[in-house]
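Customer ticket, subject: "Can you confirm the structure for EAL domain-containing protein?"

Message body: Hello, I'm evaluating your service for our small team and ran a test protein. I'd like someone to confirm that this is what the system normally returns, since I don't have a reference to compare against.
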Amino acid sequence: MDNTYYLESRIAGSTNPQRIVLDTLPITIGRSADCAVIINNSSLSRVHARIELHANKLILCDLDSTNGCFVNHQRIVSNTELQLGDIVHFAGIEYCLKAEDNCAEDDDRTRIYMQTLPKHFAVKSKEFAELLDQQLVTTFQQIITLQNGDVYGYELLGRGKHPSLGASPFELFKIAESLNKQNELSVLFRRRGFMQAELAGIKKPLFFNSHPEECHNPDQLLSELSELRKLHPSLQLIFEVHEAAVTDLGAMIAIRNGLTDLNIGLAYDDFGSGQARLRELTEAPPDIVKFDISLVRGIGNSESARYKLLASLNKLVQDMGIATLAEGVETEDDAIACHTIGINYFQGYYYGRPTAITSE
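Agent reply: Thanks for trying us out. I re-ran your input and got the following:
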């Protein structure tokens, strides 16, 4: 083999081996002292599994174990080839197959355990690495309208294009977070979105997002946005920040000032979904406040408490010179209510579902 392969465990506080180096094959794995790798866990059989090398391929063999061997959460029924990034379970003990360039014996009884496999590692890590390396993402746009129904701008929404992964950003970020690659995915979505928008000749405002983790390092985030601003000086950009992403007022002020220097607007996203940014409204005022769907959905009744709350919040924000936007407008009744309240901008399925970026 050109690389040194190993199985790495991510079980915090475990006495099990943290790494099984596959430099001398075959190896046997189990509880017995006769095994090359001894794992002191009662869910494993005495001689549980063997890993062999055939034609430069790693092969996992289950040795009639009681609780089984699993590859990517599927119990194997025959000898199975292992691929880089595969998730391997010996009974309930979880490992991930990785690569680098270039037990004490108990009694003979194997205890049966319930088959609930831990999932510390994400399946499809190999495919996710390909997505990042080959930039297999695209961008959709969600229309944002004015009160008269004209298009005001768009929100950029990332989607995956890898044939073996889903398109949903939610699922992709789940994999990314398990690999500590969430920032890389967020940057890739943003860069691809800006490039597609410029190629399409979009001149209207573009709302874009970040992963909350990025906001923990404002200097690095602003440096990356500065680079993108140089690449796309003509785009009208508005950066959306969720209220949970930045909890430190000083960091929020730094982001606000940095965005101003880059001629990038600021929107507070999902306003009202948790603790409203009342102090930030004065200390680090945004250009736009986006009211969360939880405030907007079902407010058609003008006598309801939710209608009165949204009307009051809208007046408070607008009196501070900040524009407002209603997210998640899905019905005609909610659209009429938001218009009546006097909200400036509207976004939601009532005005159109996300579509691929096209020329204006």
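A couple of notes from the result: The two ends are 53 Å apart (CA to CA). The longest helix spans residues 182-199. Feel free to reply with more questions.
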